Amino acid sequence: MCSAARERADSPSRIRAMNAPHPATAPARHILEHVFGYTAFRGEQEAIVEHVAAGGDALVLMPTGGGKSLCYQIPALLRSGTAIVVSPLIALMQDQVSALVEAGVAAACLNSSLSLEESRAVERELFAGRLDLLYVAPERLLTPRFLDTLDELRDTHRLALFAIDEAHCVSQWGHDFRPEYLQLSVLPERYPGIPRIALTATADQLTREEIARNLRLENARRFVSSFDRPNIRYRIVDKADPRRQLLAFIREDHQDEAGIVYCLSRRKVEETAAWLAEHGVDALPYHAGLPVEERSANQVRFLREDGIVMVATIAFGMGIDKPDVRFVAHLDLPRSVEGYYQETGRAGRDGLPAEAWMAWGAADVVQQRRMIDESEGGEDFKRLARARLDALVGLVESTTCRRQHLLDYFGEASGPCGNCDNCLEPPRTWDATDAARKALSCVYRTGQRYGAGHLIDVLRGERSEKVIERGHEAVSTFGIGADVDDRTWRSLFRQLVARGLLAVDHERYGALALTDAARPLLRGEDEFMLRLVPEKRGRTKRRSASTEIPAGIPTTLFDRLRAWRAETARERNVPAYVIFHDATLREIALARPHTLAELGGISGIGDRKLEAYGAAILEIVAEAG
């Protein structure tokens, strides 16, 4: 349950008394260190905090685990009044509130999980001016009763800011669309002058523009951090026996570690979870069709116990703050690169090594295309969905660095990462230079007005109705690719698009057009290589991240600290990572502090946690000798 933690209102770690305004001089760095326990901001965090605290609007794109929450939590503590945080999921609100309460911040949430009396108690705290942050779902915020509450806060100058978390939910093209988010455009109309910050971990250029337009943040300052998650290793394999491939992956690399397995259908989720459980994996199912009680219980177990594997549809995961998810696996092709990045980003939030593993096959593409064709969306929606699927297929078929390909999709230049399957085990390829030139030539000869399906008919010499109607049986490229099968041609066209030699014109129904990048290949100055189906081969086993204790850390002390944390979390009725992350425990075990001052210098330990847990930790360190 979300609560305001009134019992901690007088903690010395508070930046201000609950009923007093923030001191104008309270610096962001002071809050960062003494409340949240960090000595330095990362990336653009400080610039974002200063901009919002000064009253500016912001659109923030920052990868999962990059510290987005601090970008509005610290301004909330710097500004007078209560910050209203719009969050789409109850679990996300509860995690955020629990973590803030542990840090000594007065936070609460309003959602359907609260009883009437609990909701009224939160509202009393709000009206009394005793809340720094209040988390609400968009549906709750938009009710007349809550808008009246916000009006009163505005009129009494007690409305600090609006934070819109998971802002990609406003995109109608996105994978997590929530129609209620569209109505949040009421905020600047009704509450002008109150700063707004919208945050998301995943948005390509099209989604960014839609977020800005739909939330009326066109004039907001944009902060775009690197999308790179260097601690995640990307690996994509061809489907053979996917369940057994998944089981081997878990047993070899992630035994007894937390992970998420994504499947496309509810039936497959349940069957896969049951099958893994039969083979010794502590796996649980999660999808929207499960009874609410079972779904909630499974989520709680995943968040609070070690080594649980959650098998889920994409209904699970958004806003899951569990930092020690060591792998994310896909047994079905995601719907887009954006969705893939969002889902894989749930691994390794603590910065420790993690893996994104996927098994895919041609049948996945067929199934996804059928789902798009049979969807209720209009032609514009279907055309964009097909283009995004093609971009994802380009990623899985790529012979070059996965990370480089992924970052390029989000407009970020990079070099080979050395930490993906293609970098670590370069794939076998075939020289498709001649076929690629034929394909590019066919695009040109037919006027750069057609999609891949028609171009393949021309190349293969198929006298289809459309080919005859357009007179394309007479072009010089008709039939010059008859020796290449349809599947290979489709793979080739996807890679030509993926590598930027062809551009997709969405306004002209997916027509392919040459880009300047195609010229070197057409002039004979470049070559074009494609992936061959790999042969089965052995792979060096990677030790699991949880057992990789850096040199110098006493494993026994680390284990004792984890055991103490687990017991403390049970007593507090919160997930263990809300008490401390593994990274903080590792640093304690390495530093072996003897005094509260030494302990307070460790990352992740603010004043409130030092006061609450310092003596117990020092005792454990002393007992370890």
From TrEMBL:
<feature type="domain" description="Helicase ATP-binding">
    <location>
        <begin position="49"/>
        <end position="221"/>
    </location>
</feature>
<dbReference type="GO" id="GO:0016787">
    <property type="term" value="F:hydrolase activity"/>
</dbReference>
<dbReference type="InterPro" id="IPR004589">
    <property type="entry name" value="DNA_helicase_ATP-dep_RecQ"/>
</dbReference>
<dbReference type="GO" id="GO:0009432">
    <property type="term" value="P:SOS response"/>
</dbReference>
<protein>
    <recommendedName>
        <fullName>DNA helicase RecQ</fullName>
        <ecNumber>5.6.2.4</ecNumber>
    </recommendedName>
</protein>
<dbReference type="InterPro" id="IPR014001">
    <property type="entry name" value="Helicase_ATP-bd"/>
</dbReference>
<dbReference type="Pfam" id="PF00570">
    <property type="entry name" value="HRDC"/>
</dbReference>
<dbReference type="GO" id="GO:0043590">
    <property type="term" value="C:bacterial nucleoid"/>
</dbReference>
<keyword id="KW-0233">DNA recombination</keyword>
<dbReference type="InterPro" id="IPR011545">
    <property type="entry name" value="DEAD/DEAH_box_helicase_dom"/>
</dbReference>
<dbReference type="InterPro" id="IPR001650">
    <property type="entry name" value="Helicase_C-like"/>
</dbReference>
<feature type="domain" description="Helicase C-terminal">
    <location>
        <begin position="242"/>
        <end position="400"/>
    </location>
</feature>
<keyword id="KW-0479">Metal-binding</keyword>
<dbReference type="GO" id="GO:0006281">
    <property type="term" value="P:DNA repair"/>
</dbReference>
<dbReference type="GO" id="GO:0046872">
    <property type="term" value="F:metal ion binding"/>
</dbReference>
<keyword id="KW-0378">Hydrolase</keyword>
<dbReference type="InterPro" id="IPR036388">
    <property type="entry name" value="WH-like_DNA-bd_sf"/>
</dbReference>
<dbReference type="GO" id="GO:0006310">
    <property type="term" value="P:DNA recombination"/>
</dbReference>
<dbReference type="GO" id="GO:0043138">
    <property type="term" value="F:3'-5' DNA helicase activity"/>
</dbReference>
<keyword id="KW-0547">Nucleotide-binding</keyword>
<keyword id="KW-0862">Zinc</keyword>
<dbReference type="InterPro" id="IPR027417">
    <property type="entry name" value="P-loop_NTPase"/>
</dbReference>
<dbReference type="InterPro" id="IPR006293">
    <property type="entry name" value="DNA_helicase_ATP-dep_RecQ_bac"/>
</dbReference>
<dbReference type="GO" id="GO:0005524">
    <property type="term" value="F:ATP binding"/>
</dbReference>
<feature type="compositionally biased region" description="Basic and acidic residues">
    <location>
        <begin position="1"/>
        <end position="13"/>
    </location>
</feature>
<dbReference type="InterPro" id="IPR002121">
    <property type="entry name" value="HRDC_dom"/>
</dbReference>
<keyword id="KW-0238">DNA-binding</keyword>
<keyword id="KW-0347">Helicase</keyword>
<dbReference type="InterPro" id="IPR032284">
    <property type="entry name" value="RecQ_Zn-bd"/>
</dbReference>
<keyword id="KW-0234">DNA repair</keyword>
<dbReference type="InterPro" id="IPR018982">
    <property type="entry name" value="RQC_domain"/>
</dbReference>
<dbReference type="GO" id="GO:0005737">
    <property type="term" value="C:cytoplasm"/>
</dbReference>
<dbReference type="Pfam" id="PF00271">
    <property type="entry name" value="Helicase_C"/>
</dbReference>
<dbReference type="Pfam" id="PF00270">
    <property type="entry name" value="DEAD"/>
</dbReference>
<keyword id="KW-0067">ATP-binding</keyword>
<comment type="similarity">
    <text>Belongs to the helicase family. RecQ subfamily.</text>
</comment>
<feature type="domain" description="HRDC">
    <location>
        <begin position="551"/>
        <end position="625"/>
    </location>
</feature>
<dbReference type="GO" id="GO:0003677">
    <property type="term" value="F:DNA binding"/>
</dbReference>
<keyword id="KW-0413">Isomerase</keyword>
<dbReference type="InterPro" id="IPR010997">
    <property type="entry name" value="HRDC-like_sf"/>
</dbReference>
<dbReference type="Pfam" id="PF09382">
    <property type="entry name" value="RQC"/>
</dbReference>
<dbReference type="Pfam" id="PF16124">
    <property type="entry name" value="RecQ_Zn_bind"/>
</dbReference>
